[in-house]
Design brief:
Layout lengths: L9 E5 L5 H25 L4 H13 L2 H26 L7 H18 L6 H30 L3 H21 L22 E2 L2 E2 L1 H18 L1 H11 L1 H6 L4 H28 L10 H11 L4 H25 L3 H23 E5 L8
Antiparallel strand pairs: 1-4, 2-3
């Protein structure tokens, strides 16, 4: 008895490859779709979509002061995305950048609060940066060690470590580092412990752009970057090639945490000039989106970080000028990110519909 195998009406197949121009057409199309959906949302709340989008752009890029604020938002996003990129390339899911930023900020703040009058300003800032990098690296090294030694779940481990270091900062706020008794506030840094401004923005943007070049070279042209790529493709292949996978994991996570710690130093010394429990401001989580949208490309991260910064800064202006709730701006940002991430599905996969057999009516 013969049984005909039924072909599914719709099936999914991985693409072998796609021409570059088609890839960029899909990505551009996703942005157009996101803008149209965002316009629909604005129309539902009674706002003119064209006016609203114009307000977002002018609010983020219309004046020098607005551009400076936008850059200040983009700097930690870009720095943190650079930090987690090598981990994600290695398929080590570092969800603890938020805590690593905070750890770096704590270490930098110690020197800002207690060494400001004992070291010259340039030396003090250098020590703060090194302390931030070391603290962030060590904080990231802890889950990496447990992963290498006992194969623990790095996602949960790094996530939980975020809350531990945030709790430490809250203790410092209400205890040893509290300024006025009962205020739960750490004092502002001395001027010598604050990053100088270049073109109206703290010089952290120069540090982060230097890190862009460094990470591009590190990932593309060094032995360490090659080892990260091999482990990401296959751990077994890496072991067969004689690589010390555990050591490479710890080394990469230390580097990731060190860069996050530098971001913590930049935020504490450049943007806030103090330390508080929300110093990371959710950057550690948002940067995951930046890293994925950029396909772990260091230079693409610059554009994605600026795009998100424009949306965040423009949303504030949209609320004040057009009385549009910030929640609407968050919805539009979410739609844009969803469409940009979703387009990668159509780049990597194709939908195949069952064809009607010849002679069938």
């Amino acid at each position: 008895m013969n049984h005909e195998t039924k072909t599914p009406f719709l099936r999914l197949a991985k693409r072998d490859g796609m021409e570059g121009w088609k890839v960029w057409c899909i990505r551009a199309g996703s942005i157009v779709v996101a803008l149209l959906l965002g316009a629909l949302v604005m129309g539902l709340v009674g706002a003119n979509p064209l006016t609203a989008y114009g307000t977002i752009l002018s609010g983020a890029l219309g004046k020098k002061t607005a551009i400076r604020q936008t850059v200040k938002i983009a700097v930690p996003l870009l720095g943190c995305a650079l930090a987690i990129a090598p981990c994600f390339k290695m398929r080590f899911w570092n969800i603890g950048a938020e805590g690593q930023i905070t750890a770096g900020a704590v270490a930098a703040s110690y020197f800002a609060l207690f060494w400001a009058g004992r070291l010259p300003a340039p030396v003090l800032l250098l020590v703060m940066g090194l302390a931030g990098a070391l603290a962030g690296g060590i904080w990231a090294l802890i889950p990496a060690f447990f992963k290498a030694k006992w194969n623990t779940n790095e996602t949960l481990f790094t996530l939980m470590m975020n809350y531990i270091i945030i709790g430490v900062v809250r203790w410092l706020q209400g205890g040893p580092w509290e300024g006025r008794k009962g205020s739960q506030i750490i004092p502002q840094f001395d001027r010598a412990a604050c990053l100088p401004k270049v073109l109206g923005v703290h010089c952290g943007w120069i540090i982060v752009l230097a890190l862009v070049v460094f990470m591009h070279v590190y990932m593309k042209y060094t032995k360490q970057g090659y080892e990260i790529a091999v482990i990401g493709d296959s751990v077994n292949t890496a072991r067969y090639a004689g690589m010390n996978v555990g050591y490479i994991m710890m080394r990469t996570m230390f580097l990731s945490g060190a860069i996050s710690g530098i971001v913590g130093f930049i935020v504490a010394s450049g943007a806030n000039n103090t330390l508080y429990d929300g110093v990371a401001g959710g950057v550690g989580f948002t940067s995951i989106t930046v890293a994925w949208l950029s396909q772990l490309n260091a230079f693409a991260m610059v554009a994605i970080s600026m795009l998100l910064a424009v949306l965040e800064k423009g949303a504030e202006t949209l609320q004040t000028r057009m009385a549009v709730p910030t929640s609407i701006s968050d919805i539009i940002t979410g739609i844009l990110l969803f469409c940009m991430l979703g387009c990668e599905f159509f780049i990597n996969f194709q939908l195949i519909f069952r064809r009607r057999k010849e002679g069938a009516k």
